[in-house]
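Thread title: Can someone regenerate the structure for this chain?

I was given the following input by a collaborator and told the matching structure tokens would be attached. They weren't. Posting the sequence so someone can regenerate them.
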Amino acid sequence: MPPITVTVPASTANLGPGFDCIGAALTLYNQFKFTCLDSREPEGVRITVTGTEAPLVNLNADNLVYQTFLKYYQYLNQTPPSVEIAIELGVPLARGLGSSATAIVGGLVGANQLAGDPLNQIELMNLAIALEGHPDNVVPALLGGCRLAAKGEETNNWEICDIPWHTELLPVVAIPNFELSTQAAREVLPNDYSRGDAIFNIAHFGLLLRGLATGRGEWLQAALQDRIHQPYRKTLIPGYDTVAAAAVAAGAYGMVISGAGPTLLALVPSSQATAVATAMATAWQKEGVTAQVQTFSVDTQGTRWSK
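Best answer:
Regenerated them for you:
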């Protein structure tokens, strides 16, 4: 069996009011190369990692890519092969850009190819959602584009809706030099919300979907507001309000927390992308935070693999 190389895009989830149900794939990638080893390999796995944050990645059997690889074979009730996994990191860890989703999707797709491709894309997607616990990152990471996921109560099946994204609308992403765990970001959220907050988010989420499709700035300016997670999570991100104000002053329609954070994402007309990126970096620098600011596009292809 020749090596299998799997490329998985980063993703940004929530987009303001779409908590835990919407996400978009970005043109930033992790790559995973799977090579079958001699079955006598004592540990069953060898892991190598390259990239800026390579020293932070677990190289033993607890590695998330390998754990996902094992769970795939458990799902098939088969013995997993010994494998070498070479990881090339492009997606920062614990920054709200779906690094764990790339590991889960990469592990499943790599295992599926080594096993002879017995599972189709929907089956892989359902496995990925079950392992991640929610669909907002793994679905766009696997399928590409901007995706809305909802489960039917009677069928218990995930329904995935492709959300149109206007070509003149760009995500400007500011990635700070500190981490924020998803667990910490969830612990600050309340257990209950008022009816008013629920209605607020329903209305703004509906407007968000139309704003993304049409690129209408006035709709997006209103739509990116949220009362479910961002008012609580922004307290964990130093300088949030300062960066948001700078982004809007430079021409952004608004700014949101990417996933659980601490990465901040501004939605911007393409003509203002450079100005907004500079403004966000400068504003955060004044708050004592160094950030890598980049303009991405929405990746429409999703996960790809090659031999």
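The first strand starts at residue 4 and ends at 13.
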